[in-house]
Automatic annotation (TrEMBL):
Key words of the record: Signal
UniProt protein name: Porin domain-containing protein
Organism: Arcobacter caeni
Keyword Membrane attributed: no
Signal peptide: 1-26
Origin superkingdom: Bacteria
SUPFAM superfamilies: Porins
Length: 377
C-alpha cells in the first residue's frame, strides 16, 4: 500500500544514495568535512478528512512538520548524515485520530529518522545506522547495515540486514520497532541492466525462524511502452501459523507526450497470499489504501492515467480486488493533483474512494481527502 500524496517516498535507486560508488564532494580534514557539509530539509502543512461508512465515525486531523538534515562532506571515503523530523498537531475530528493511542497516526511528535555512517570507494559502499531504504520488500527508515557492490559492469548487488524500522512522513510517524522480534531480516538484491531496455531484479529475503521469500522482477522500457513482470514466493516456518504463499504482478504502461497510462493485474495464491512478505515494506500495490491486495486468493485488476497540463500533474487510478471464497470485492478510486508553485514549494491533493463488500471485517467504506503544501530546501 502506498500513499500517492505524501508518504515522503524514499529513493534508493541503483547507483544512487547509499548505493553510490563515487563521492560527490570531499574534504581534507574532519573539520572541513563538517564545514563543507550540506543542510537540507522541509516545512510542510498536511490535512486529511475521512467520510467513513458502516457506522464508523468520520475522522481526520491536521499536522505541521519540519525536517532538518545535515550530511558531512567525505573524508577519506567516510561521511555521515543525521535527520530529524518534528510534528505539530493542528487539530483532530475525533479523539485519537492523530495521536494518543496505538491506532493513531502519530506515535511521536519528534523522531531521528536518519543517523548513519557511510564509507564509499570505487565500486563499493557500506552504510550503517538509521537510513532510508526502498527495496521491493524493505522500505521506509531502517536501523540497518547495507552494502552495495557496483564493480560488476551493469550490475548492482545489495547485501543488507535490518533489525528495526519506522515509517515517518507528513501524515504519520511511527516509533522504531523490531522486525521479526529481535532477529531482523537479511536481504540479497541484484539488479542487472546489461541488456538494452531490460532490467532483471532477482532477490532473496530471510527472516530467521519466520519466513524466507524470493522473487524475480523484470522491467522492460522502450520508447513506446513499458512492461513489468514480477513473481515472488514465500516459504514460511510452520510454527508461526502462516501458510506458504505467492504473488504475481504484470503491468503494461506507456507515455505519449504528456499522457501516461498503465493497466495491471496482481494475483496471490489461495493459501498464504503475500501479507507476510509486506511486514517490512512493499512496492507492488499501486493503491493509496489497497487493503485486500495481498490477501490470500486476491485478484486485482487496475488501470491508471496521468496527464500534465500547465505544470499541473493529474492522476487517476481505479482498481477492483476480488478475494475470498465468496468473491467479495474491494473497489478503489484515487484521484491526484500536484502543482509546483515554485521550484521549492509544491501543493498536492488526493481524493480516495474505497468501497468494501464485506461487512464482518476491520475494513469499511471510506471516502477521504488528503492535502499538503510543502517547501523543501
Amino acid at each position: 500500500m502506498k500513499n500517492l500524496l505524501s508518504r515522503n517516498k524514499i529513493s534508493l535507486i541503483a547507483c544512487g544514495f547509499i548505493f553510490s560508488s563515487s563521492v560527490a564532494f570531499s574534504a581534507d580534514t574532519i573539520d572541513s568535512a563538517f564545514k563543507e557539509g550540506k543542510v537540507s530539509g522541509s516545512v510542510a502543512l498536511y490535512g486529511e478528512k475521512h467520510d467513513n461508512k458502516d457506522g464508523v465515525k468520520d475522522s481526520g486531523f491536521g499536522n505541521g512538520q519540519a525536517t532538518v538534515a545535515f550530511e558531512t562532506a567525505s573524508f577519506y571515503g567516510f561521511n555521515a548524515k543525521a535527520e530529524f523530523k518534528g510534528n505539530l498537531g493542528l487539530g483532530q475530528i475525533e479523539k485519537y485520530d492523530r495521536s494518543g493511542d496505538a491506532d493513531s497516526a502519530f506515535a511521536n511528535n519528534s523522531l531521528m529518522t536518519e543517523a548513519y555512517l557511510k564509507y564509499a570507494m570505487e565500486g563499493f559502499s557500506i552504510t550503517a545506522g538509521r537510513q532510508a531504504i526502498d527495496l521491493e520488500w524493505l522500505a521506509d527508515y531502517n536501523e540497518a547495515v547495507v552494502a552495495a557492490i557496483t564493480a560488476i559492469p551493469d550490475t548492482t548487488v545489495v547485501l543488507g540486514y535490518s533489525q528495526r524500522k519506522a515509517e515517518s512522513g507528513i501524515d504519520l510517524s511511527e516509533d522504531f520497532h523490531d522486525i521479526n522480534g529481535n532477529k531482523g531480516v537479511y536481504v540479497l538484491d541484484v539488479k542487472y541492466a546489461g541488456l538494452e531496455s531490460v532490467e532483471f531484479n532477482p532477490y532473496v529475503y530471510s527472516a530467521p525462524d519466520a519466513v524466507d521469500f524470493y522473487g524475480l522482477k523484470t522491467t522492460i522500457t522502450t520508447d513506446y511502452f513499458g512492461l513489468i513482470a514480477h513473481y515472488a514466493e514465500s516459504s514460511v516456518d510452520k510454527n508461526n501459523g502462516y501458510e506458504d504463499g505467492s504473488i504475481g504482478h504484470l503491468e503494461l504502461n506507456t507515455t505519449i507526450a504528456d499522457i501516461s497510462a498503465a493497466v495491471g493485474y496482481i494475483k496471490t495464491d489461495k493459501d498464504g497470499g503475500a501479507a507476510i512478505m509486506t511486514t517490512a515494506g512493499d512496492n507492488i500495490s499501486p493503491f493509496d489504501t489497497g487493503n485486500r491486495t495481498y490477501d490470500p486468493d486476491a485478484r486485482t485488476v487496475y488501470g491508471s492515467l496521468g496527464y500534465t497540463i500547465a505544470d499541473v500533474e493529474l492522476g487517476a487510478l481505479y482498481g477492483v480486488t476480488t478475494y475470498g471464497i465468496d468473491d467479495s470485492k474491494e473497489k478503489e478510486l484515487n484521484l491526484t493533483a500536484s502543482y509546483p508553485i515554485t521550484e521549492s514549494l509544491t501543493a498536492a491533493i488526493l481524493y480516495g474512494d474505497v468501497n468494501e463488500d464485506a461487512t464482518d471485517t476491520e475494513w469499511h467504506d471510506d471516502k477521504y481527502v488528503l492535502a499538503s503544501v510543502e517547501y523543501t530546501f
